[in-house]
Amino acid sequence: MVSIAQFRKLALQFDEATEEPHFEKTSFRVRKKIFATLDKKTGRAVVKLSATDQSVFCAFDKNIVYPVPGGWGTQGWTIAVLPDVKQAMLKDLLTVAYCTVAPKQLAEKYRQP
Domains in the chain, please, with CATH? Predict the structure, then answer.
């Protein structure tokens, strides 16, 4: 289980990551590009992944990590259910999402070999 506070701390650990409002949600951005959003009411986060990364993470458990329904999901936007996701997996999700949208020089620091 991951709390809202833990999610925020994990999302803001990346270089140049900022927290900003995004409609009725909170977004986490790097250089104005969203890599994650948080819906405090539902306890769900949405992260931006490549299609390949999305399929890998969703294969773990489709009840915890799954594509956003419709067109957004086909673009890599992926839901993580915070009360059910383990902190280590969420950290991996956020790292991959950050590296997906961050400029190459920022992402290099966090990429897994």
Answer: 4-107 (3.90.1150.30)
